[in-house]
């Protein structure tokens, strides 16, 4: 029966060759001749939509980060408010918002960008984070405009809170009557959102350098990169000057035990021998300090802790002095970061050379 086996083998080879030729012909017809209709007025061939969407869902589920990556403060009002500000700037035009319908043109896209009011019913927080950070091919959904991943979470927080949100709540949350920056930073840069830095305590030099770093990407933040991409370069100096001209107001908080530990670190009096004195660059200091360094007095503790963590992990970026902070923070523990944040946030809000105990 050897001849039968040989015949069978020749048949298989022949059939494979025919299939390859047919496949090549189909590819030529679809790709080269243009048989496949790419018009957004026409739907996909039967089964294509199902195959693509199923692939999409499976890919997201396979690659999404674990639940342990979700921050503990995800659903706090400050995180939701910060996410709302970015959503208005970068997402609303395609996906709409509470009381803001998608435009007629957007509704003609294929696939149509969905309303995100119920997105939290379908996707988990880690899955939403992955989709926002990575984007989706061939859908019009872009990737996050930065490598940094932590500032994606506020947008996830907003999407989770959007279900049932009234147009009035949305309007109040994103009101920019005081100017675009005020949505997140508040009037005159005095932010009441603990996830957003106060700008009134910073110098004109530091603000200008930071905005320039956001614009050219040397300081990594998808939120701020989006903002700076919409502002003319000439406005950087004007913004820096306007925020720096504000005189900080507020009082010091009663020192707590954690703040006392942070003071010891800031003065290099703690047990750690690898953490330099923070006050030499950030105050309080007896001599004038380089205005390229930020004042930390009265800055929000969650924001300070986030920045120190980014420095420690090498993800912060910034101006020419960035290398100093990479070295200064690389050995900080989570407990030391919390203590330093508690100490500086408890000081009376002040400019760099006005920082006092």
List keywords for this structure.
0% strand, 357 residues, Cytochrome Bc1 Complex, Chain D, domain 2, mainly alpha
Structure description:
This is Class I triheme cytochrome c. Keywords: Electron transport, Heme, Iron, Membrane, Metal-binding, Transmembrane, Transmembrane helix, Transport. GO terms for molecular function: electron transfer activity; heme binding; metal ion binding. InterPro entries: Cyt_c-like_dom, Cyt_c-like_dom_sf, Cytochrome_c_Oxidase_Subunit. It comes from Roseovarius atlanticus. The structure is a single chain. The chain is mainly α and 357 residues long. Among the domains are: 101 residues, Cytochrome Bc1 Complex, Chain D, domain 2 (Orthogonal Bundle); 98 residues, Orthogonal Bundle (Cytochrome Bc1 Complex, Chain D, domain 2), CATH 1.10.760. The protein is built from 17 helices and no strands. Helix 6 packs across helix 7, helix 10 packs antiparallel against helix 12 and helix 13 crosses helix 17. The protein is elongated, with a radius of gyration of 27 Å. The mean pLDDT is 90.
